Amino acid sequence: MKVLVVSDSHGRNDLLRQAIGQEAPIDLLIHAGDVEGDLKKILGEETEYKIKVVAGNMDRSAEVNASLAFDVGAHRVFLTHGHHYGVHYTASALVDMAKKCKADVAIFGHTHMPVREKEDGVLLLNPGSIAKPRQGPDKTYIVIQVDDKTGEWDLKFKKLPRQSWF
Question: Are the C-beta atoms of 109 and 142 separated by less than 8 Å?
Fold first, then answer.
């Protein structure tokens, strides 16, 4: 199974589609919030992949949850945008909530900076932003290959190609 993890697309649907196209085919799209639009309308009602999305601080849809917990292969994932957990300052509240959900992975956005670190037994993942990166010019996302037999993950950060004005 192939999973694409993105966050903070901020209405740049062209970049969201570019990331999907660059990694196609995928089985699951995880969006950690700040879509700034209706993801089903942006991508179409019938996609060939499943979608897990949460609302960010810039999203106004009442139909999208603030957080979700679900399984991906051998891992339990807690997905949230992160603004309710103070992720700009510390990950402790995020880690606590992930543990309450019995998740060993917490995926979040909001900071626009890629993160891959383990804290108190929870793998913290932030794909960065595909629209407005803060760590430099690279627009980043994560691709997870899930081993069909073991459920274990092979995880890689990737970049969208830089756009040329010429």
Answer: no
In CATH, which of 3.40.190.10, 1.10.1060.10, 3.60.21.10, 3.30.1490.20 is domain 2-159?
3.60.21.10
Q: Is omega for the bond preceding 114 within 30 degrees of 0, making it cis?
A: no
Cα-based distances in Å from 141 to 9, 91, 113, 126, 132: 10, 20, 10, 8, 12
Q: Scanning the structure block, which residue is given the tokens 């108190």? A: 120
* pLDDT (average), residues 18-27: 97
Q: What is the pLDDT of residues 100-131, one digit of tens each?
A: 999 999 999 999 999 999 999 999 999 999 99
> How many Cα neighbours within 13 Å face the side chain of 143?
15
pTM above 0.85, yes or no: yes
Residue 76 bridge partners (DSSP): 71
Q: How far apart are CA 83 and CA 59, in angstroms?
A: 12
Residue 74 to residues 99, 109, 133, Cα–Cα distance (Å): 16, 22, 30
Asked if the model's pLDDT at residue 152 lies above 60, the reply is yes
Give the pair of three-digit tokens for residue 165: 């004005």
Task: Give the DSSP letter string of 64-79.
Answer: S-SEEEEEETTEEEEE
pLDDT (0 to 100) of residue 164: 52
The per-residue pLDDT for 165 is 52
